[in-house]
Specification:
The chain is an alpha/beta fold and 262 residues long. The chain has helices at residues 31-45, 49-57, 60-71, 89-96, 109-122, 160-170, 190-210, 213-225, 229-238; strands at 2-4, 21-24, 27-30, 80-83, 102-106, 128-132, 145-151, 171-182, 242-249, 254-260. 43% of the residues are buried.
């Protein structure tokens, strides 16, 4: 793992498409259909999502999330908005680290249902507001939260630039945005192994465990279509976030980006 704000990575074209189409994995689809298609993917996998995350990352996603939560600087007087929060891992980590009230949000009600059930079992539901939220149009006032997080969700959004602008808008001055996402592998020896795992093994595991190979094929493709580390950092700057930096995890398989509203 490395930390850097100045990786010299060649720019990677944004996965956002111009005109009336955008990417859905390796396919171009009408922009107005992507949200529905992504929602269907996550409705399909919601019940097995946590198990499949362990399978997809060989359990390493838990380590990445612990690092991510540790970087948030949780305090009791701080409020968190967790975008694409799904089954609640980041929200729960925030509260257990001593953070203040949290909004667990996702565009997918099936994922949130799993998250709500987990929160009840963990005795955390009283500190959490659970909301269906489109991250491209957040229904919160300007300057209303201290931290905005999105973990493994930004790549599924149709208009990533809008998500970044909205995240900055709802942050208080001095607030900080954090994104944990699969990124661009920077260790050459890892690439062929990672590709084999993603496109040969993962869909078969999806079929075996979740009875859904197609959704996991999409998830693998969506990772490859996501902007690389430096491109995402520039997108964050363009959205008005400042002091943007990123930290690679596991050789760039994943990365944590952060930026401030100053």
């Amino acid at each position: 793992m490395t930390d850097s704000a100045e990786h010299n990575v060649p720019p990677f074209p944004s996965s956002e498409q111009t005109g009336d189409t955008t990417d859905f994995g390796y396919r171009n689809v009408p922009r107005n259909q992507k949200k529905t298609m992504v929602r269907e993917v996550f409705e399909s996998v919601a019940g097995k999502y946590d198990i499949m995350n362990d399978v997809m990352s060989l359990g390493i996603h838990r380590v990445w999330k612990r690092i991510f939560v540790g970087m948030l600087g949780a305090r009791p007087n701080m409020k968190l908005l967790d975008l694409a929060g799904g089954t609640g891992d980041i929200t729960f980590g925030w509260l257990r680290a001593g953070g203040g009230p949290a909004i667990l949000s996702d565009i997918n009600s099936a994922m949130l249902s799993v998250g709500r059930d987990r929160a009840i079992k963990a005795g955390l539901i009283g500190q959490i507001e659970v909301c269906v939220v489109d991250a491209e149009a957040i229904p919160l006032p300007d300057c209303s939260v201290d931290r905005v997080t999105i973990a493994f969700g930004l790549r599924n959004c149709t208009d990533k630039d809008a998500v970044l602008r909205e995240a900055r808008r709802v942050l208080k001055p001095g607030g900080r945005f954090f994104c944990l996402e699969f990124s661009r592998v920077e260790i050459a020896a890892l690439s062929p192994v990672y590709d084999t795992w993603s496109f040969k093994v993962l869909p078969k595991m999806g079929q075996l465990i979740a009875k859904d190979a197609e959704s996991y094929q999409y998830l693998a493709e969506s990772i490859r279509m996501f902007p690389d580390q430096e491109t995402l950092a520039q997108m964050m700057r363009d959205a008005g976030l400042e002091r943007v930096q990123y930290r690679n995890l596991s050789g760039g398989i994943a990365a944590i980006h952060s930026g401030w509203r100053l």
